[in-house]
């Protein structure tokens, strides 16, 4: 690894990982909340079997 | 590189989410449908005051479909969204903790371990005090259970991080205490535990839920490790 020339510097790579990580955390939380926890009847009905199968608290 | 990292997570999540629907149709959904038959057949059955109003308007998605795909279609979509969401959150934890995935089998192995850790936090730990439930189970208040569930997953993740990724012995002991704490505090338990659902279905369901989600998280972790290692490889090559 160290011998190869990086196309991005190490700090850029760490920065990109942090930004990607934060974005993934926000988007992922919204998706999981929508599928598993949101209190909307339509969402509940559509995700019903998924919620039960993943053990989300349901009903 | 940011987009590549996100796409790697998304690809792993969509593949694992797609694989989850057949797994559910083999193990969990037949039991859900059996339980629903008992739930609907049981006249005069109550879920407790908090859940009773919710129950009246309750519908299992069999009659109407949000996307017009029917029950199977809805479940496929929901599993894809859940897979993508869990994958993004798992990738976020890996990226923010600075976990690197080496190329080749080492990256896949690390991903599998990561997936197993996530399964412990998201499935096994909450299930120990709040078992996965089929429809028709006696239920405590939904908000209480959701709150306890989220807190338990967060505590289990922090605790596991202390144990697995910190060298200090004091932190490892503290991590164990953090994992145990929500269970000592206690999960919301319904006042009336009677139910029309046969015990066999309920216990088979709890095992089926843990088994199918273990399959999901291992597949997701392995794929994530593989895909993220490819991103690193391309960036440093």
UniProtKB/TrEMBL annotation, chain A:
The keyword Membrane applies. It holds the Pfam family CbtB. It comes from the Bacteria. The chain crosses the membrane at residues 14-38. The keyword Transmembrane helix applies. Keywords: Membrane, Transmembrane, Transmembrane helix. This is CbtB-domain containing protein. It comes from Hoeflea alexandrii.
TrEMBL record, chain B:
Keywords: Membrane, Signal, Transmembrane, Transmembrane helix. Coiled coil: none annotated. It holds the Pfam family CbtA. The keyword Signal applies. The chain crosses the membrane at residues 76-99, 111-134, 146-164, 169-185, 197-220. Residues 1-23 form the signal peptide. It comes from the Bacteria. This is Cobalt transporter. It comes from Hoeflea alexandrii.
